[in-house]
Amino acid sequence: MVPDVITEERGCDVAAFTSEDEVYDYLGGVFRIGMQDAALVEKLKPSGVVLRITYTDPDAVLTVDMANSEIYTGAGAGPDPNVELFMSADTGNRFWLGKVVLPVALAKGQVRAKGPVATLLKVLPLAKGLFGPYRESLEAKGRADLLSA
Asked: Which residues in 12-127 belong to E strands, given as ranges?
């Protein structure tokens, strides 16, 4: 039957994050790790990027003010963004695991963007340095479900 085929093909439709707080803990946590790296902060400050990421499944909003090394959680918190991304929390998790290439995800519609994305893409290579620490944080917290996403 068609519904069974769809279920089997999609298989991973269950969100790995169970709450908004988990999104802030894990996906917000990777930004907190980055903000503790003085060399990374010095490279991000001149970008002037204020990035707001709106996640779904579960709903959560992170705003990262790269120029001032600040992270805000919740809708409406923090300064107005100049770049916004919209994606599922699972896509965000997979990005930090190095499994999602942002320009490809934008082209495929897995991630939507608003604002000068070219500015964000200039600092994107710096994110690769956080893939390892993100994976380590998941391992330390026993989150095999997120690691296998």
From this structure: 50-56, 60-65, 70-73, 83-88, 112-114
Alpha-carbon distances, residue 14 vs 45, 102, 146 (angstroms): 37, 22, 12
Cβ neighbours of residue 101 closer than 8 Å, sequence gap 6 or more: none
CATH superfamily of this structure's domain 2-140: SCP2 sterol-binding domain (3.30.1050.10)
Per domain, the residue ranges of the chain are: 2-140
- CA 48 to CA 67: how far, in whole Å? 5
For residues 24 and 124, give the distance between their C-alpha atoms in angstroms, rounded to a whole number.
Answer: 20
Number of Cβ within a 10 Å radius of residue 90: 20
Q: How far apart are CA 96 and CA 26, in angstroms?
A: 10
Local mean pLDDT, 10-residue blocks, the chain (149 residues): 31 71 95 93 91 96 94 94 96 96 94 91 90 96 92
